[in-house]
Amino acid sequence: MASAPEPLAALPTPAGAAGASRLPTVRGRLADFASMPVHQVLRRLETGPRGLLEEAAQARLEHYGDNVITGTGRPRRAPQVLRALTNPFVMILYVLGAVSAALGAYGATTVISVMVLISCWLQVRQEHRFDRVAATLRAMVVTTATVVRRASAQAPPVARELPVDQLVPGDVVRLGPGDMVPADVRVLRSTDLRVDQAVLTGESVPVVKQAAYGTGAPYREQDGDLGTFDCPVLGFMGSTVSAGTATAVVMATGGSTYFGAMHAQLAPRRAETAFDRGVKGVSRALIGLMLVCAPLVFAVNAGVHGVRLAALWFAISVAVGLTPEMLPVMVSTALARGAKAGLRHKVVIKRLPALHNLGAVGVLCMDKTGTLTHDQLGIECHVDPYGRPDDDVLRWAAINSVGTTQTEEAWPVNDLDEALLAHAEQAGVPTEGWIATEVVPFDAARRSSSVVVRHAHRPGTETLITKGAVEQVLPRCTRLRVAGDDLPMSAAEHRRLRELADRHAADGVRMLAVAIADRRPFRPVPDQDLTLVGFVGFRDQPRDSARAALAALAERGVAVKVLTGDHPLVAARICRDAGIAPGRTVLGEEIAGLDEPVLSELAARTTVFARIDPEQKARVVRALRASGHVVGFLGDGVNDAGALRDADVGITVESAVDIARESADVVLLGDDLHAVAEAVTEGRRTFGNIKKYLEITISSNFGNVLSMLAASILLPFLPMLPMQILVQNLCFDLCLLPLAFDHVDRRALRRPQTFDPRRLTRFVLLLGPANTLADLTAFAILLHVTGGHPGSAAQALFHTGWFFENLLTQAAAVHLLRDRRPPSRRNRAALPVFAGTVAITTVATCLPLSPLAAPLAMRSLPGFCLLSLTFVVALYCVLISAAKALWHRIDSPTRR
Length: 896
Ligand SMILES: Nc1ncnc2c1ncn2[C@@H]1O[C@H](COP(=O)(O)OP(=O)(O)OP(=O)(O)O)[C@@H](O)[C@H]1O
Fold this sequence. Notes:
The protein has 31 helices and 24 strands. It is α/β, with parallel strands linked by helices. The chain folds into four domains: 1-266, Calcium-transporting ATPase, cytoplasmic transduction domain A (Distorted Sandwich), CATH 2.70.150; 278-335 and 684-895, Calcium-transporting ATPase, transmembrane domain (Up-down Bundle), CATH 1.20.1110; 341-372 and 543-679, HAD superfamily/HAD-like (Rossmann fold); 376-541, Calcium-transporting ATPase, cytoplasmic domain N, CATH 3.40.1110. Strands 1, 2, 3, 4, 5, 6, 7 and 8 form an eight-stranded mixed sheet that branches. An eight-stranded mixed sheet has the order 9-24-23-22-10-19-21-20, sandwiched between helices. Strand 2 (144-150) and strand 3 (158-163) form a beta hairpin. Helix 5 (88-102) runs antiparallel to helix 11 (309-322) and helix 29 packs parallel to helix 31. The chain is elongated. Adenosine-5'-triphosphate binds at residues 367-369, 414, 416-417, 442, 444, 447-449, 467-469, 510, 512, 564-566, 637, 639.
């Protein structure tokens, strides 16, 4: 049985709570590790190059805990309760409740307290569900690391994929392009390793890391963070491998890593999305409206009738009525529902607010390989420099792939190399016996890979084999091999070869040039002065679902742009096959020197960008965003990570590399690209319901405030008692919550949906007064019924009458404003919405007859009164329908 490990001197103790003070300790420990030779590091970590024993790793896991940053684990109740209790809307209610208590209005204080309790309870419950949904969805996209461990002391080391949270100090991990650095590590062995540390340093240029101590920038503790991150032998949790491979040993995990210590110190928040900003903006506007309207109601009342305590209570109740305390509950309910619905289409929304951004996306940029096409490539041809089939070309290309995969860390194998190896094996082309002595693996910026190989039976000579994009390799060639003879390559030959490759590319075949050079051992040759042996052609298989999915996106008003590292002619051909008109293809080199405004303008009118490197992909995305587009990016490769991060919403597929899955907000689980269109629709549905909630609640409340102002001037008494206003407000708030589950007008699903506060204001200004007109008619009827008598019985009748009419008009508003079309069987509300409105209609009708009528100072309404107020509600329906029709006529579709 594994005994609990002694705390190792060099190992971090499990991260405690004192996060703020951990950074200096962590930095000191890193300095220690960085200054030791590798063998000493391994000894201090009580591990070896062959990895930990499984049993020891388990014991360490129990001791050090999961490799997760505190705060990213399971959602906890206490902070949720605290957040609910300190939400600004609830704080306003505290103040209003306290003022009511100070004025002796204990009934109002009780109702306000009930409102606070209900709102907090609903918010905690909903936030908990929201977090659970988010955690479940995140768990569906597990990030793994390649770890080397042994089953027993005698067993050979085995490399296997392990969920990142199971890593422990002392584990030996292998890193390749696209991998997250899963913990703080010391590099043991590396090949051309470059690491993107932007998450930690903000610097997007990848940093070279290497195993050899004493080369590159040495670690200097006095440099602080900068020195730490520049240290070539250290890799940090949170960074990603942008090129090359490495084997490294884990020094610290979870909260004991540098990232963990920074997280604890800075408590970083998720960057604010357009959605967050929109919700905040609307909340602020509502609070502003309340701060203006409540004092105004008081001032008008005081001006007309003199300063009275009742008027103050009344104004306070108006303020409570205008406080949108249920808005956070509504938003999280709608997002959680949307995320669950997305799952039905095999779409995992990793960050729930991304749902709104999905619905707002107007431009979707995507890479080609693995997105428009499958990532299983087929080999179309292998030809000599004159275009004649030649097995020798396939052999050299496959040996290059064998060499690339021979470095221990190079795993998983690049798709193109995988296709080459499979085809060579199938064609019986021999690749055995070759041993790689040097490897420069493929990276998207260089667009080529090189290996130096030696054959086991010919130890005296070594061969450099380079394969890669034609434009990249051809300029490095000075000769071409034809039927075993090496001929000099003239400029005319050069042109002819480019044309040969272009002809294949125009047919959708991606051509890779293969070139070689002999070299003597230990005599480095530069990767030039090569002999071209020929080309290998690959054909991307278009995804079956691509055409239909792109058509579905176009139907939804989403413009698609393709950003690929591939040849422009191949890109154009694949786009045409997928139903996209490519137009003029813009090359990466064309955008290299452009400044942002020019690039924005070019990007807006370009559909296909080709031969574009990872940084340029991200630049195009940023330029589109800068010109006001809401941009989505769909990609799966290491070359897509920057663009995924910089887009409003990053989308990837389940088979993507780690960094793409980590950077993305949305992950498609299935193979069907159509899911993107469904996810966009789900985003629009979610936002459509939130928008409906805002439109109905704000326009109704605004109408009510106008009515109250008018009543303050016209009536000798208050139009409704403060307590009644509070009860009515509570009923209306609860009735609106089910809108999160409502159906959405199909037309609204066809356009990107964005937050537009000015449009919301125009809507409220036009529709709100319809409510006021109905109220004024009700006032006239009630004055007629009561004979304008100021006695308490007449006032009770008036108050009950307005309570009844107001709740009924609000229930009607839900049905009339929830859809752009008039209510009918075809666009009827979802059942919960229907139930909500039935509930408030019942309350409006039955409350005056119930035992609660007396404490609320209500009385039953005479038949005539009920009938005429029902007539007013019918009149309201006509008015609001006319106002809605007018609104849809003047509201320009481009603004919707
Ligand atoms: N394993 C490899 N070895 C050598 N050259 C390669 C390899 N993989 C790709 N290339 C070359 O580099 C070019 C760019 O590759 P990159 O991975 O950036 O983009 P892509 O896969 O062509 O397209 P996308 O950007 O749409 O994923 C390819 O078109 C090809 O010419």
